[in-house]
Specification:
homodimer, 428 residues, alpha/beta, Rossmann fold, Alpha-Beta Plaits, twelve-stranded mixed β-sheet, six-stranded parallel β-sheet, 14 helices
């Protein structure tokens, strides 16, 4: 029976969660993976800091060399986050024959190709289930059980913070700032919420998912990103009255021989399986040519859900070590083009305030018409004495065409304000 | 590069779906699994029958010996169904060194232990993702990504036919017989619908899921089963007015050192993730001590979804052949007791008709009280002149205690009829 020696880089929330799981089920690991698992080293900045989870003395170290040069350590669990020195550490560890488990979406979304090709040369595993959707099994199912499919579309609610904020805004009529503040008070959002709120975190996750789903390398820079800070309670009210809710969606698809990948708020029909994914829950909806529609739902963050995915990956590594095989190889065996955002076709929800005069609607409609933007529905509501609010939903049109029309409409003297433009997903 | 020769046993809907997938993506298999895959033989009863999918001449055969004695055939995909001769064929094939992929829930739920121990002796793979939840990846995620967890509960909507019927009854107020007839007309239910409607199909799937979730052998006979034929539109109306819907649930949990496993209709709160799983969709809700609540959703049956899971398993076998390893071993490394149904504790929804007389409610309440059955809510409705309908929801009580109380209540002269007793799941 193998003895597996593990080193954990970083001992924050998730690292301590991993040790909790390993300690709790200590008697089961031998049964579960036919090997003994020991956490031999944990890399920290400060060994003296008070922590919830206790380790035997001598396990914590501040010295990376002590870990990477220990030939007994077979597996590195990387939970430091960030790009450097993490990237260098992982590359060095692979070259020294260690297998890697990581939850680092930032690193994978930017340097995935380098990491995976280094793995291949080193004949070592790199697993990263925890990098997307926390504890939800999504990367391994996409790489294995669903591999018979040509994946057509992946739509994810992959950021719990923004989903919590939008749920609060929807259910309690709060505005964005108040809902964000509540999320911060509850620990769902960080003091600097930019990465979550502006969609950057979701974009990194979508880069990873799209790479796997479409077998082509997609990086963070390929993803079009818009956050949720412009969404107002009024948008949510209009959406609901039309049979939709608003979610921050990651949308990736393969069409016209190009990969589309974008993160932005979107209206989604209330009967769509993603519409009922609330609070800090995540879900990833996958459509394949054989399997049809599937969805994977659960906790997208948090100590124990993330640790669950990390330890699941650790067991996969241990099984590979037992059988002397590598199961985690890169699946980006094609090179597909990324569709420019201008070329993306979708439906749009548009709110604009115009002077309440005869001929205004005709004027605007003719500008849309000239750009090939056709309207599925228009609702007009009197706002104040001489300003009317128009709520428009378009048929499927090209992003560039709607942006060009709005450029013109914005400059009309009859236009008071283009209040919001939100894409619509899942409209037939 | 390996050449993998596959034989398919049975060439019905799913078998043809498998060949469709293999033909459609012919150029991709080498990239996806670094091997060439060929369907060398297909076992049928009648080679002359007209079929949608065409095979090269010489592939179809009626002779099992021709397949099992062909040393070039590495993998058998078993889609014949039923217990015999399927069981003997699989055992023989394993002994002759062939790997197995199967969708046969009947066989696994009754003879899983024999098949998996034969695999171990023969050092061969047996994968069966398609046996539960059609195309939904659930067995592999439970065996891999979620393995770090102690699973606490698995609740599944694992039969599409009954979910379709209940959805029709809920949304259109149809009675059971009419909804069943529609399901039969649309091909969702068979001419003899017993196996679906009486919960037997779901029970087989729950035996498989419980075996994996709790690492102990659970067979079909261990599962308590009740079907949906007694559910009426009135039950659904009452349920909705109380904030619930009714689904045929497979429920398995580990508590008090015993495994509970049962299939029956149950009220479930409208806000539960399973409540919105409608039509012929399936979903499996898994609660683990680390990951918390997760759910897996998709098409639980049909040609292409099932074929998706089968081909996913085939790729897993091919990867194992490539690396000369076995990844599909049995995970039932413990022996846990099955809780007798009498000892199960849950909430109950009870409808009974009683004479509308003073003291009746007190009389019934005192019988419940004597058996330790405490009531969470009681609604009384006048039905006809002198008969009242009582709708009761209980706190968590033991199955035996509620059954014993009803035995006594049934015999009271004031009791006209015990209309229905339905368990409640997910009540706090």
């Amino acid at each position: 029976m193998n003895k597996i020696n593990v080193a954990i880089l970083g001992f924050g929330t998730v690292g301590q969660g991993v040790v909790k799981i390993l300690q709790k089920n200590a008697d089961q690991w031998v049964k579960k993976c036919n090997a003994e698992i020991e956490v031999k080293k944990v890399l920290v900045k400060n060994t003296q800091k008070e922590r919830e989870v206790k380790l035997p003395s001598g396990v914590m170290t501040t010295d990376w060399q002590e870990i990477v040069n220990d030939p007994e350590i077979n597996v590195i669990i990387e939970l430091m986050g960030g790009i450097e020195p993490t990237r260098s550490y992982i590359l060095e560890a692979l070259q020294k024959g260690k297998h890697i488990v990581t939850a680092n979406k930032d690193l994978l979304a930017e340097h995935g190709e380098e990491l995976l090709s280094t793995c291949e040369l080193a004949d070592r595993d790199l697993y990263f289930e925890a990098s997307v959707g926390g504890g939800i099994p999504i990367i391994n199912p996409l790489k294995q059980s669903l591999l018979a499919n040509n994946i057509e579309k992946v739509i994810g609610i992959v950021n719990g913070t923004t989903n919590f904020i939008l749920t609060k805004m929807t259910n309690e009529g709060k505005n964005f700032a108040d809902a964000l503040q509540e999320a911060q008070q509850l620990g769902y959002a960080e003091a600097d919420p930019t990465s979550d709120v502006e969609g950057l975190d979701a974009a990194r996750k979508m880069a990873i998912l799209a790479s796997i789903a479409f077998h082509t390398r997609v990086t963070f820079n390929d993803v079009y990103v818009e956050g949720i800070s412009k969404i107002s309670p009024e948008d949510l009210e209009y959406a609901h009255s039309l049979g939709y809710t608003i979610k921050l969606l990651g949308i990736s698809s393969f069409e016209d021989d190009q990969v589309e990948v974008r993160v932005h708020p979107a209206l989604i029909p209330l009967e769509h399986p993603l519409a009922n994914v609330n609070d800090s829950f995540n879900a990833i909806f996958v459509k394949g040519d054989a399997v049809g529609e599937t969805m994977f739902y659960g906790r997208g963050a948090g100590q124990m859900p993330t640790a669950s995915a990390v330890v699941g990956d650790l067991i996969a590594v241990v099984k590979d070590i037992n059988t002397n095989s590598i199961s985690s190889s890169c699946t980006c065996y094609e090179t597909k083009k990324i569709k420019p955002m201008d070329e993306v076709k979708t439906n749009y929800f548009l709110r604009l305030q115009v002077l309440d005069e005869p001929g205004v609607l005709a004027n605007i409609a003719s500008i849309f018409g000239a750009h090939g933007v056709s309207l599925a529905s228009v609702v007009q509501k009197g706002c104040t004495e001489n300003v009317a609010e128009l709520v428009v939903i378009t048929h499927k049109v090209r992003e560039k065409d709607i942006q060009d029309s709005l450029e013109i409409i914005r400059k009309l003297t009859i236009t008071k304000e283009i209040v919001n433009l939100i894409r619509v997903e899942g409209m037939e």
